[in-house]
Amino acid sequence: MSMVAEKEFIIFSIGNPGSTNRHSTGHIVMKALIEYFGAKQLFKPSSNSMYSMTEVDNIALVKSNNYMNDSNKSLKQYIEQEKIGLRQAVLIVVYDEFDLDLGKVKISPFKKNESHNGIRSIKEYISRQSADSTVYKLGIGIGPKPSNATTSTMSSWVLSNFKPDERQIIDNLSIPLAIDYIDHVIDVNGEIQDCSKLNASFTKRSNLQI
């Protein structure tokens, strides 16, 4: 992968602070991305920062330090404090996707109606910014979700830790696949022509590796 590209790339992970459960899978992936890109460890720019960050070349790796529902506050503060112009950047939000099976990864644009609290929070902020922004969400599968799940049981499930065999799938399948996705987005300078075709291609490739 070429590390030189025209645009700035912001990889933004969301989850709950201090946890490594299903709902913080985005942060688990972020830790691997820091190692992959050879970046320095995350740091808080100031004591009141709602985000931690590190940079390498034209790639910013940013982690929300807020709870999932307040992810937009972390992104807003980062954009404003670092004086980021979203029109000149490509934003990739990394999060846990309960409608996607464990070991699967999917990239897509934001939908009109988002069911994921963190993604919905981010969308609320993004929708008030430039319509020309290039924004993707990179869902890391944590499903299948419990059958006949209620709001209460879903909440307990997403906040539970992975079983050892599940975490192995995250480490051995999901993380390498997420890295491949991000490499591709950077290689095409953020200009994905068809997310559905790209996902089909990556799904086929990952199935061959299982």
Protein model, in words:
- Keywords: Hydrolase, RNA-binding, tRNA-binding.
- By secondary structure, the chain is α/β, with parallel strands linked by helices.
- It is built from six helices and six strands.
- It has a single domain, classed as 3-Layer(aba) Sandwich (Rossmann fold), CATH 3.40.50.1470.
- The longest helix is centred in the last third of the chain and has 24 residues, at 164-187.
- The model has no long low-confidence stretch (mean pLDDT 92).
Name the features.
Pept_tRNA_hydro, alpha/beta, Rossmann fold, 39% helix, RNA-binding, 210 residues, DEHA2B04114p, tRNA-binding, six-stranded mixed β-sheet
Order of strands in the sheet with the most strands? 2-3-1-4-6-5
Category from helices, strands and their pairing? alpha/beta
Main beta-sheet annotation: 6 strands, mixed
| CATH homologous superfamily identity | Peptidyl-tRNA hydrolase
Number of helices: 6
CATH topology: Rossmann fold
Count all strands and give the number: 6
| Radius of gyration over all CA atoms, rounded | 16 Å
Question: H/E element string?
Answer: EHEEHEEHEHHH
Low-confidence stretches: none
**CATH architecture descriptor text:** 3-Layer(aba) Sandwich
Give the terminus-to-terminus CA distance.
24 Å
Q: Compute the average pLDDT.
A: 92
Strand content: 15-25%
What is the number of independent domains? 1
Tell me the helix content: 25-40%
CATH class: Alpha Beta
Which overall shape is indicated by the principal axes computed on the Cα atoms? globular
Protein name: DEHA2B04114p
Organism: Debaryomyces hansenii (strain ATCC 36239 / CBS 767 / BCRC 21394 / JCM 1990 / NBRC 0083 / IGC 2968)
GO molecular function: peptidyl-tRNA hydrolase activity; tRNA binding
Keywords: Hydrolase, RNA-binding, tRNA-binding
